[in-house]
TrEMBL record:
Pfam families: MDMPI_N (PF11716). This is Mycothiol-dependent maleylpyruvate isomerase metal-binding domain-containing protein. It comes from Ilumatobacter coccineus (strain NBRC 103263 / KCTC 29153 / YM16-304). NCBIfam families: maleylpyruvate isomerase family mycothiol-dependent enzyme. Residues 10-121 form the Mycothiol-dependent maleylpyruvate isomerase metal-binding domain. One of its GO terms (molecular function) is metal ion binding.
Length: 267
């Protein structure tokens, strides 16, 4: 899906630019769905992510002491709190184009299949970075800016973005949640996504002989309980922005299912 993510990101950049052009001063200053961040801070973070991909050495902030992806993002946001809206928009305009171009260049061998460590996000082939940013953009626009600006929440649930976003989340989930899943009931669960980017996956405990890490398999296990949701809602609850119980159906009352889903936390 990674090459498809580039097409989706190109559409997302257009949506973001069009949205930013309509925001009022009050909307820019409104609290977003990211705790402690205004809408302006979320937009600045989106620009900074592209800048880190295209030319990390141009970021004026020292993030070397930050531990983890979320802490790194927080350092940059706090350093740029005094930026004007015009500065944020200009940064997004510049770095979104450069960032998408850099991501497109990672879709071809040998770079595409080169596995790199990404701290608490796990280790991934570089082509998956396109999927990661599809996830980042989809989530920040609709769930975070969308918490303050209804027209952001109503942006299209575009499968060309949703599909790669989910691919990134499922690739990262076993690594990001390894310790929590190791302590959870060893209960396989079928995740069935209805609506845009519809698909079925099975979250399965790993083989103890091969290692404790859980795996995500395409398709369903006929013997495993089923949780039905949407890809859009999965992005919200699997990142702890919402409770999975609010938008999921199926075998939701099984205690072992609840215990597994409660520890899912994708970043």
């Amino acid at each position: 899906m990674s090459k498809g993510a580039i097409e989706g990101l190109q559409a997302e950049v257009i949506r973001a630019k069009e949205l930013f052009a309509t925001l009022t001063p009050e909307e820019w200053a409104a609290p977003s769905g990211c705790t402690g961040w205004r809408v302006q801070d979320v937009a600045q973070h989106m620009a900074a992510v592209y800048q880190q991909i295209a030319a990390a050495d141009t970021i004026e902030v020292d993030v070397s002491a930050a531990e983890g992806a979320e802490a790194t993002a927080e350092v940059v946001v706090q350093a740029r709190k005094e930026w004007t809206v015009d500065q944020v928009v200009a940064a997004y305009d510049e770095w979104s184009e450069k960032g998408v171009a850099a991501l497109a260049a990672l879709q071809e061998p040998p770079m595409a299949d080169t596995v790199v460590p990404l701290g608490d996000l796990g280790s991934h082939p570089m082509h998956l970075l396109g999927d990661a940013i599809a996830f980042d953009h989809y989530c920040h626009l609709r769930h975070d800016i969308g918490a303050a600006v209804d027209r952001a929440a109503r942006l299209p649930k575009d499968p060309t973005v949703l599909g790669p976003a989910v691919d990134w989340m499922l690739a990262g989930l076993p690594q990001m949640c390894a310790d929590a899943l190791a302590s959870a009931p060893q209960q396989p669960i079928n995740l069935v996504f209805d609506g845009p980017a519809a698909h079925s996956f099975c979250l399965t405990p790993g083989d103890p002989a091969a290692g404790p890490q859980w795996i995500i398999a395409n398709g369903a296990d006929d013997d495993a309980p089923v949780i039905r949701t949407t890809a859009h809602d999965f992005i919200s609850w699997a990142t702890k922005r919402a409770d999975w119980r609010d938008t999921s159906t199926g075998d939701v009352s099984q205690p072992t299912v609840a215990a597994v889903l409660d520890v899912v936390n994708v970043i």
